[in-house]
Amino acid sequence: MGKIATVFTKCRYFSLLFRNWSQGIYVVVGTNDLTMGGSHISVQSIKIHEQYDNATSKNNIALIRTASNILSVPQTSTVALGIASTLPGQMCTLTGWGKEYLAMPLYSNILRYAQFSVLSLDECRWYLYGIHNSEICTNPSTSGGCDGDNGGPLVTVADNVQIGILSRGVPCAMGKPDVYTNVAHYSNWIDQHSGSMISALSPFFLALLLSSCCLM
Asked: What sections of the sequence does the record tag as coiled-coil (predicted)?
């Protein structure tokens, strides 16, 4: 398998980081517990989508180039990059380091997960205003993305394909859909800005998202 040194995530995190780049950013991979194990991979550069709109969350995707090969780290695996349309009802898993509930004072050190089914965009628009065709929604549930989970991957249960990046929504399962950037919609942009490391047919690493990144 070739070298993988590119991470993708949402844009919203980087509006302040660029002003304080000397603080340093790194990616943590190879562990499900931030208090032990894993490896810290330095970040070399960040590419934010040129048409990202902070007010509407449109084009909420960014690429992070790491300084070294992530797949050289033990305890890592791959997931395919979504290139096809997502079907309503498809079961998916969200992972993240966010809070268990909104009032919780600290983020989780343990990687958590929850499963949801995909909601059609027409149905999603019944709940939320301003849903874009470049987004994916999941059905409201008793579990959901919470503070700190944004940027986390949405991966299909049946075939282990990453179809989304958690972008926005009402936090912590408060009766509204979670909203994700649709990875397939941006496959050409990802390929254009990451070269041969991520293509429509190449495997993509599950931890290559901000859900597995930490700020120093």
From this structure: none
**CA–CA dist 69, 50 (Å, integer):** 26
Closest CA to 50 of 68, 34, 63, 32: 63
When pLDDT is averaged across residues 114-140 and rounded to a whole number, the result is: 95
CA atoms within 13 A on the CB side of 152: 25
Domain with CATH 2.40.10.10 in the chain: 6-77+185-215, 79-184
Burial 178-208 (b: 16+ CB within 10 A, else e): bbbbbbbbbbebbbebbeebbeeebbbbbbb
- Higher-confidence residue: 118 or 46? 118
CATH, range 6-77+185-215: 2.40.10.10
Model confidence pLDDT, tens digit, residues 165-189 = 999 877 788 889 999 999 999 989 9
H helix runs in 128-216, sequence order = 187-194
Query: Hey, what CATH class is 79-184 in?
Result: mainly beta
Position of tokens 């517990």?
Answer: 33
Instruction: Quote the pTM value.
Output: 0.82
Scanning the structure block, which residue is given the tokens 């390929």?
A: 191
